[in-house]
Design goal:
three-stranded parallel β-sheet, THF_DH/CycHdrlase_cat_dom, alpha/beta, 16% strand, methylenetetrahydrofolate dehydrogenase (NADP+) activity, 39% helix, Rossmann fold, 10 helices, binds NADPH dihydro-nicotinamide-adenine-dinucleotide phosphate, 2 domains, 11 strands, six-stranded parallel β-sheet
Length: 297
Amino acid sequence: MTTIIDGNEIGDQITDGVAACTDTLISEDVTPGLATVLMSDDGASETYVSMKQQACEEIGIEGFHHEINADEPAETLFSTIDELNGDPAVHGILVQMPVPDHVNKRDVLERIDPMKDVDGFHPENVGRLVAGNARYKPCTPHGIQKILAETGVETEGKDAVVVGRSDIVGKPMANLLIQYGTGGNATTTVCHSRTADLAEKTRNADIVIAAAGVPEMIDGSMLSEGTTVVDVGINRVDADTEKGYELVGDVEFESAKTKADAITPVPGGVGPLTIAMLMYNTAKAASLQSGIDITLP
Ligand code: NDP
C-alpha cells in the first residue's frame, strides 16, 4: 500500500506546537511579530502573502503587512526593510519573492537583519546552514525534513536525489540531507537542467525530492519500487475549471503512486509545511531576540 502523505495534518501538528510556544512568549509579554512585504502585482504572490498573514492570526503571532507599488524605486523597499529591522515589535521579516526586475534580489536579502531573516536566505544564515549550525532553516526544505520524519522515512545511509538547485529549495534541501544527525546522513545527488540522464539518477534513489517547476516531469517509469517521493512543484496548467487552470506538481502522481512507498500530493503535500515552518521560524526569532526559552515542535 502506498502512503499518501497528508501535509495538512503534519502542518497542523507543527502549527499547534508553535501556537503553544507563542502562548509561552505572550505570557512573558513578548508577542512574536512577522512583517511581510509585497512589492509585486502578481496574483500568486498576493495569495501566498495573505496565507502567511492568516496563519499568523490563527496562531497569535502579530502580523504586519507592507505593500509597495511595483514601479517604486528599490530605495523605497530598502527603507521599509530598514524601518522593520529597527522595530522591536517585528521579530521576523519576509519580503515576498520575486521582486521587480529593477530591484536587485541579493541586495534585498542582504538588507534584512540576519536575526530577523525568517526565510533563512541572508548569506550569514546560508553560511550557518552549510556549516551545520543553522539559525533559521529555509521553510520548504525544513518542512520536507519534518514530512520525512513524521512519515518514518529514515534518511541515514539512503540515496537521495534532489531535482532542482535553486537557492530557496534545491540547494538548502541538499545541504540539510548531507548534514550529520537526524534527518541527514543521506548520500545526496543534486540534479538540474543540465543533468545528462535524470531518469537514471531518480531510478537509483531511495528518496526523490522534485523541485524543478516543470509540470509532471517525473513519472512512474523514472522511479523504482519503494521510493519515497516528495513533490515540491506547484504549477498552474490550463484546465476546464472555474479558474481556467489547475495546480499540478513536478511528479505525475498517478503513475508515480504505483511505484512509491510514500508520496506527497499537490496540493496538500509540501505547501502547508512551508507556512508552518515560517511560523516556527518566527517563534524562534522572537525567542532568540527576547532570550525567552521555548520548546519548538
Ligand atoms: P527555480 O525555477 O528557481 O529552480 C528550478 C530548478 O529546477 C533549477 O535548478 C533548474 O535547473 C531545475 N530544472 C528545471 N527544469 C529541469 C529539468 N527538465 N530537469 C532537471 N532539472 C530541471 O524553482 P524553485 O526552486 O523556486 O521552485 C521549484 C518548484 O517548487 C516550483 O514549481 C515552485 O512553484 C515550487 N515551490 C513550492 C513551494 C511549496 O511550498 N510547496 C515553495 C517553493 C517553491 P537549472 O538550475 O539548471 O536552471
